[in-house]
Amino acid sequence: MNILFLDQKEPVEGKVIKQDNSHILIEGVEKNTSGFLLLTEKGCVFGKYEEFITLYKEEENGFILSNDGSVYVEPEPMPEPEPEPEPEPEPYEPTLEDLQEAKVAEMNMAQQGIIAAGVDVVLTDGTTEHFTLEDHDQTSLVGLQSQVVAGEENIPWHTSDEKQHCKFYSNADMRKITTTAMNYVTWHVTYFRDLRIYIRSLTEKEDVEKVTYGMDIPEAYQSEPLKAMMAQKP
After folding, report:
1. N or C, where is the chain less crowded by C-beta within 10 Å?
2. Is residue 194 a contact partner of residue 215, using CB atoms and an 8 Å limit?
3. Which residue has the higher pLDDT, 99 or 135?
4. Per-residue exposure over 175-184, b if at least 16 CB sit within 10 Å of its own CB, e if not
């Protein structure tokens, strides 16, 4: 799993085993006593262990941290001691809420990626061009809407093809570009918000793990705007 130590900027991959409420074994990474967070593959926090800052014991493949200041003391040898069985380590088990918030963060990243990738627009001459919708693209398109409303012609803009120069678009074409782009963004923002509510309503971990971006949201969790947009889709 991904471990982010508090004195580092980038996470490292290692193994974390909870031994009891005060001791955690970490394997596969360099020794660090700054406290740590556990992250999902998408970089979302699902476990906080800032108080584990005491080196309890060094192991062959790792080290044990404690959150109560305790340090391992080697016991004095006893004659023919009976070996005590090692307690079974307790692997970390995320709660339902942990999984829900991790899934919400995963879906949010998917939404942002899909929006940024952009949308195809069919222009008045029947040709299709692709336009990215990064944050700066969306801001610029909002400004171009005022030029469309003002009836201006020859409005400059660019496609997502970096090999192509910027070019002028007619008022009709720019109206198509801005309308299509804004509708595309509105759809994904609305869909994600309803999906987020649905995820947080689930009561079984297995159901949370099955959620994917683009799935059909049960009607009970569809907002009125989402239903209206779905009804308008061909």
Report:
1. C
2. no
3. 99
4. bbbbebbbeb
Name the one residue in this structure whose structure tokens are 């910027």: 166
53, 57, 93 from 37: Cα distances, Å = 12, 20, 15
Q: Identify the pLDDT of residue 146.
A: 86
| Residue type, position 128, single letter | T
pLDDT at 36: 94
Q: What residues contact 234, with CB distance under 8 A and at least 6 apart? A: none
Q: What are phi and psi of 101, to 5 degrees?
A: -70, -35
**H runs (alpha helix) in 58-170:** 96-117, 135-149
- Per-residue pLDDT band at 184 (split at 50, 70, 90): very high
At 70 the pLDDT is 93
Distance from C-alpha of 123 to C-alpha of 75, rounded to nearest angstrom: 80
Dihedral pair phi/psi, residue 103, rounded to 5°: -70, -40
End-to-end CA distance of the chain: 43
pLDDT of residue 106: 97
Q: Is the distance from CB of 26 to CB of 34 less than 8 angstroms?
A: no
pLDDT in tens, 63-81: 999 999 999 998 887 777 7
One-letter amino acid for residue 142 of the chain = V
Residue type, 20: D
Tell me if residue 36 falls in helix, strand or coil.
strand
Residue 176 · residue 122 · CB < 8 Å: yes
Q: What's the predicted TM-score (pTM) here?
A: 0.58
Which two tokens mark 80? 């023919």
> Torsions phi, psi of 201, nearest 5?
-90, -15
